[in-house]
Amino acid sequence: MPALLQARGLSKRYPGVEAVKGIDLALEQGVCLGLLGPNGAGKTTTVEMLEGIVTPSGGTILYRGKATGPGFRQEAGIMFQQTSLQDYIRVEEALRLFASFYRRTRPLEELIRRCALEEFLRRDVRHLSGGQRQRLLLAIALVNDPEILFLDEPTTGLDPQSRRNFWDLIDSIKGEGKTVLLTTHYMEEAHALCDRVAIMDHGRIVTAGTPRELLRRHFDSAVITLPQQQLPPSLADRLPFPVHRVEGQAEILSDDLDRDLRLLLDHGVSLHHLQVRSRTLEDLFLELTGRQLRG
């Protein structure tokens, strides 16, 4: 499938720092690509270059095989991490204002229905809840019926119910064949929404592929977890495999569950509250980018 948007050798340098280091990235028509990475990895800079907001220091960006220009901005929808709306403006007025900026627009009645804005159309935007505000900002990003949609951490700060509701909205957009670039710190969200993911760190793409491909490529083990008190250090030291302590749990990476469960029983370990799970995108993210807190 041909790439709708493609970056080749994309880089961005600021005084004293190279934020993005010559990355290649292809976003295919109708695909949701998740761009993941810790704080400071270069995600936002990359997205802002692809959106045409930041000028690259090097490399090329092609849209439908040609350099991006004014036509691209008419066909792109953007939902920023943070968006300031004019004070004292109502929800319906905000939608009409942004619709006036484009040659082609989607029927506002359809956007209002899709993003469930009916109940607060006449409300001042300053008085919206977090979930309501994000639904309005998504409607604004869709107002020009874009071919490609940029969503930069769209569900940060939302409660679980609002986040799931937002996932449903994104799924419906994907169902129309729209192309989506999503950044998120929620690995469950990336797994649920993204056809492909690319993980960035220190300004480079460290791995890319479908979630299933990446997990199969990097992992051949499962995770055994049980409460730490059931596996104290004195007992863990006698086991023939390492035990990791994570958030009150003892974790064991196992490539042979039958063998390792028998070993736990042989060493007198209680299996009460034991859980076995497959490796996840969060495991992969931490393995590739580390557990150190970033600013």
Question: Could you explain how this protein is built, in words?
Answer:
With 295 residues, the protein is α/β, with parallel strands linked by helices. The protein folds into two domains: 3-216, Rossmann fold (3-Layer(aba) Sandwich), CATH 3.40.50; 220-278, Alpha-Beta Plaits. Helices cover 33% and strands 28% of the residues. It has helices at 43-51, 70-75, 91-99, 108-114, 130-141, 160-174, 187-193, 211-218, 233-236, 257-266, 281-289, and strands at residues 3-14, 17-28, 32-36, 58-63, 66-67, 76-79, 148-152, 179-183, 196-201, 204-209, 222-227, 244-246, 249-254, 275-278. A six-stranded mixed sheet has the order 6-7-8-3-9-10, sandwiched between helices. β4 and β5 form a beta hairpin. The radius of gyration is 23 Å and the shape is globular. The model has no long low-confidence stretch (mean pLDDT 92).
CATH topology of the largest domain: Rossmann fold
Query: How many angstroms separate the termini?
Result: 38 Å
Helix content: 25-40%
Rg, alpha carbons = 23 Å
Low-confidence stretches: none
Label the CATH architecture of the largest domain: 3-Layer(aba) Sandwich
Strand order of the largest sheet: 6-7-8-3-9-10
Give me the count of strands: 14
Beta-strand fraction estimate: 25-35%
- Please name the fourth-level CATH homologous superfamily of the largest domain: P-loop containing nucleotide triphosphate hydrolases
Q: Report the mean per-residue pLDDT as an integer.
A: 92
Main pleated-sheet profile? 6 strands, mixed
Shape: globular
How many DSSP helices?
11
| Total tally of structural domains | 2
Order of helices and strands: EEEHEEHEHHHEHEHEEHEHEEHEH
